[in-house]
Amino acid sequence: MLVLHNARVEFGGHTVLRDVSFELPQGRTTVMIGRNGAGKTTTLRTIMGLLPLSAGRITIDGQDLAEVPDHGRAALGIGYAPEDRRMIPGFTVEENLLLPTLALKLDQSTTRERLGSVYELMPELRELSRRPGGSLSGGQGKMVALGRALMVATRVILLDEPFQGLAPALALNYARTLAKVRDQRKDLTLLVTESSPQLLGGVTDRALQIERGEVMETTLAEARH
Ligand SMILES: Nc1ncnc2c1ncn2[C@@H]1O[C@H](COP(=O)(O)OP(=O)(O)OP(=O)(O)O)[C@@H](O)[C@H]1O
Ligand SMILES: [Mg+2]
Q1: Taking the domain 2-218, which CATH number applies?
Q2: Average confidence (pLDDT) over 145-155
């Protein structure tokens, strides 16, 4: 279980996360809903160690993440698909998928196994595997970003506004893929951010609302748009 205990983040004296506490129970999918600027990306980047806490703690299964540098968080099995996809345009899709495994120094058989399992979950990525990253559409890029996060995620996966900008058919496909992930990786903990609860119907029933850096438990039905 991943837990934030009174996590506070400040930018230049301005508090952006206000003593945020919540739990992500193992194997559950939690959505975090909040308007532009509410602090969704900041929350995910803080979990990844890309932004420093000015107070509070983050733990995973009781281990304080303060002991783990940012590059070590992926090694703990925390996968992250940022809002901006950051694909390497000159690398093929497959090379983009393999990038995080190089950083993790995974052996070849584990790497092949993970790649196979990602292709099984997302057969469209196998079809795109030889294409240069730079030639993909925005929606295809989001799928690669999900695949790349899945290459790393043995415990937790953090998805920042994955549905943003997806055409309805692609959003449906993405939601179906997430449902498959939940079905086939029952131990994996998911946190998905979104600005509108409408896009998340069927993804989960557990929701957090974030407003001006404050987080509270809610339900999808009650979440404000
Ligand atoms: N590097 C930064 N320096 C200063 N302020 C920042 C920085 N990054 C984010 N902020 C501020 O922190 C607040 C939260 O931003 P954040 O990006 O987490 O929001 P968000 O919920 O992800 O919004 P969006 O839906 O637009 O992606 C905003 O007020 C933003 O202006
Ligand atoms: Mg954001």
Answers
A1: 3.40.50.300
A2: 95
